[in-house]
Amino acid sequence: MNPSTSPNPQVLLDVRGVTLQYKTQNHLVTATYRVDFQVCKSDRYILLGPSGCGKSTLLKAIGGFLTPAEGEIMLKGAAISKPGYDRMMVFQEFDQLLPWKTVKQNVMFPLLSSGKWKGRAAEDKAVCYLEKVGLMKFANHYPHMLSGGMKQRVAIARGMAMEPDVLLMDEPYAALDALTRRKMQDELLHLWDDTHFTVIFVTHSIPEAIKLGNRILLLSPHPGQVRAELEGRSRDSTDRDEAGRLEAKINDLLFAGENMNQEAQHA
Ligand SMILES: Nc1ncnc2c1ncn2[C@@H]1O[C@H](COP(=O)(O)OP(=O)(O)OP(=O)(O)O)[C@@H](O)[C@H]1O
């Protein structure tokens, strides 16, 4: 076997040459073009790029909601062809919970409907994860009785309780105020310290990417193509200079092409 094609045993998710398209009545929209990246177990993997570069579309395809027009996405060596409980999604919107179910019932719902856990075991699992996100006191509340941040915590508990192979988070904090967002980022890192779960996190915030990610994929503007992949900071780094340098590098990489385009237009 060619060594360049032999599988890396550390790789959990392998995205190979993935082009994603939407067919509308009059158009074919290419959202990403031949994107390659690999996510390893326990990665906090960030998809970062400007609005419209196809970050959410990539996450949808990993979720199994969209089939690549070109390329393939493999999870643990098997091609993804449909949604599955091995990939749980957390969205930006606050209305992703079932409004007629309590907080605890919301967390229990996928545990029961997947058949992964039953009865008391499902309840214990839900309680365990509600405790992790500090919401046990609100277990019997309904979603409309919670703040936006609390609803996001429930959605995170629901996703994590399933103990999926990979948690997919699509700008989960984008609609929160700055203080809550910062607190939720810290909480996510503390949760990660606890179980070292694998997460793919979409954001267009450079500071958020630097704070959360151990690896950062930079995508070019529409249609999204890989511009670079960077090592993030180590989990316990408090070196602000290092964060500053990484931010400058990301800015250079993300905006270099645009500056060149502008220069070409003005030449
Ligand atoms: N359902 C759809 N039908 C047609 N085009 C779509 C659809 N969803 C997204 N697109 C297009 O695909 C491209 C990528 O969209 P996507 O939402 O994945 O980008 P994004 O990087 O997540 O953007 P943002 O950061 O603004 O959320 C955009 O040009 C968008 O207009």
List the defining traits of the structure above:
267 residues; alpha/beta; Rossmann fold; 6-stranded mixed beta sheet; 37% helix; globular; binds adenosine-5'-triphosphate
Protein architecture, described:
The protein is globular and about 50 Å long. It has a domain at 9-81 and 169-176 and 204-267: Rossmann fold (3-Layer(aba) Sandwich), CATH 3.40.50. The chain has 267 residues and is α/β, with parallel strands linked by helices. It is built from seven helices and ten strands. The protein has a six-stranded mixed sheet with strand order 6-7-8-3-9-10, sandwiched between helices. It has a four-stranded antiparallel sheet with strand order 2-1-4-5, covered by helices on one side. The structure holds adenosine-5'-triphosphate. Adenosine-5'-triphosphate (ATP) is lined by residues 22, 24, 29, 31, 49, 51-57, 204, 222.
SSE layout:
Layout: E1 11-23, E2 28-40, E3 44-48, H1 55-63, E4 70-75, E5 78-79, E6 87-90, H2 103-113, H3 119-132, H4 148-161, E7 166-170, H5 178-195, E8 199-203, H6 206-212, E9 215-219, E10 226-231, H7 240-266
Parallel strand pairs: 3-8, 3-9, 6-7, 7-8
Antiparallel strand pairs: 1-2, 1-4, 4-5, 9-10
The structure holds adenosine-5'-triphosphate (ATP).
Protein name: Taurine import ATP-binding protein TauB
Pfam family, one: ABC_tran
GO molecular function, one term: ATP hydrolysis activity
